From TrEMBL:
Source organism of this protein record: Chryseobacterium phosphatilyticum
Name of this protein: Uncharacterized protein
Amino acid sequence: MSYKLSTNKRYTAKEIARFYDGYQNIDICLIVEDADDKRDRGMLIPQFDNSGDSFLVYMNGKIYPDSAFDGMELIIIEKVSIKPG
């Protein structure tokens, strides 16, 4: 069963990780902003390796693991399909 996320809503990193669990939605990147500081925007990139992270976040010129966002809320701004073709 696929876990759904809606735009313009707050989610914790754990909730967003469920979106990518089990290799689902691997063709979708999420554009997000920090719920507490709207100046911080970034892109979530699905991560499927043995690192234990469900996604990486490119924000403010740096790449962070999902664990860097524990305890924070992110707002989904847009869903971007990265399907080839």
